[in-house]
Write a structure and sequence with these properties.
Layout: H1 3-20, H2 24-35, H3 40-46, H4 56-92, H5 111-125, E1 129-130, E2 136-138, H6 139-142, E3 167-169, H7 175-183, E4 191-200, E5 212-222, H8 227-242, E6 248-255, E7 258-267, E8 284-293, H9 295-300, E9 309-316, H10 317-325, H11 338-341
Parallel strand pairs: 1-4
Antiparallel strand pairs: 2-3, 4-5, 5-9, 6-7, 7-8, 8-9
Bound molecules: 3,4-dihydroxyphenylalanine.
């Protein structure tokens, strides 16, 4: 076969192969075979030395022409496959603008945080400072400084999760009192603080007990603070949270860090004192513990108890929320069920 016929045949076969390629992968293979270094056309160019000198330019020209033609077809085919890929992608990603939109889900404030935020702003309004003590507390602040030495029987009620000999998950926020007392500069004015936060105790987990709950500690220390200041303050809190027409009463109690100690009851908001299941037919509901700060607590923190005195209180935020919203199971606070949580959206402020 004459060389020009061979070149022409290569062209025809090449064009035919390109036409039959079904995808880019096949096309790549054909391109390598036709145009690659081992391809027939290249071989012809490499064997120029065997061609008579007068034929060389013509053969070279012919081969280059065929290469151009094939390259053009290859490019066109490539473009064709690319367009097909893009078209398929566009088709798949088509957005149906007539579909209904997805509703955004708005969360709601946790009922305990509703109570907490409300109380915080109430106390800030009365000139209190809000402090935050550590959840991993030391035996020193949680107990020793609060007049609960190592073998004190009242420690039994607060058996908890110890991390080591000295560190524990705090059983009460009362340690905040000692921390603040140690630092306070009385020449700048009285100490008034609330300390909210989580506390932990070894406890059964049932409808009314949880190994984790939240408290708010309160402390006021100055010269001439009296029990009537305590009584007035507690009454204001009770009325603010449970309603202006609530009555309150103080009962004697015992806490190591206060003397005298009291517990406060509010008249039942459900039956107005007549007696019902919520108040266990007593007409009263216990809401918090309080008392006049024990001199040992002041002295432990380096405060002269012959000059300064004050009152303290500790309330359970879970308990407040349970009472205020009529919640029947404390575990509902900690299981993150939106059906429970979203009921409180209307209470947010
Ligand atoms: N820390 C007490 C408890 O966890 C609550 C308490 C009672 C705090 C009386 C006080 C207080 O500051 O004066 O049971």
């Amino acid at each position: 076969m004459d060389l020009f016929d061979r070149i022409n045949k290569l062209k025809e076969e090449g064009l035919d192969q390109i036409k039959q390629a079904e995808n880019q992968k096949m096309l790549d293979k054909i391109r390598v075979e036709l145009m690659g270094r081992k391809g027939e056309l290249t071989k012809i160019l490499h064997s120029m030395k065997d061609i008579t000198p007068e034929n060389r330019p013509k053969v070279g020209q012919e081969v280059n022409q065929v290469r151009d033609i094939l390259q053009k077809q290859l490019d066109e085919a490539k473009d064709h496959f690319l367009q097909a890929v893009i078209a398929k992608k566009l088709e798949e990603e088509k957005i149906d603008v007539t579909l209904p939109g997805r509703e955004g889900h708005l969360g709601s404030k946790h009922p305990i945080n509703i109570i907490l935020d409300d109380l915080e702003s109430y106390f800030i309004g009365m000139g209190y400072e809000v402090v935050q003590g550590p959840e991993i507390e030391t035996d020193h602040y949680c107990f020793e400084m609060m007049n609960l030495p190592k073998d004190h029987p009242a420690r039994d009620m607060q058996a908890t999760f110890y991390i080591d000999e000295e560190d524990l998950l705090r059983t009460q926020t009362s340690g905040d009192q000692a921390r603040v007392l140690e630092k306070h500069d009385f020449s700048k004015g009285p100490l008034k603080m609330v300390g909210p936060g989580k506390v932990y105790r070894r406890d059964d987990d049932d409808a009314t007990h949880s190994h984790q709950f939240q408290q708010m500690e309160g402390l006021v220390v100055d010269k001439n603070v009296t029990m009537s200041d305590l009584k007035g303050t507690l009454e204001m809190i009770a009325k603010h949270v449970f309603g202006q027409d609530r009555k309150t009463r103080l009962r004697p109690s015992y806490f190591p860090f206060t003397e005298p100690s009291v517990e406060m009851d509010v008249s039942c908001f459900n039956c107005n004192g007549k007696g019902c299941p919520i108040c266990k037919y007593t007409g009263w509901i216990e809401v918090l513990g309080a008392g006049m700060v024990h001199p040992n607590v002041l002295e432990n923190a380096g405060v002269d108890s012959t000059v300064y005195g004050g009152f303290a209180f500790g309330l359970g935020l879970d308990r407040f929320a349970i009472l205020k919203y009529g919640i029947s199971d404390i575990r509902d606070f900690y299981t993150n069920d939106v059906r429970f949580l979203e009921q409180f959206r209307k209470e947010e402020n």
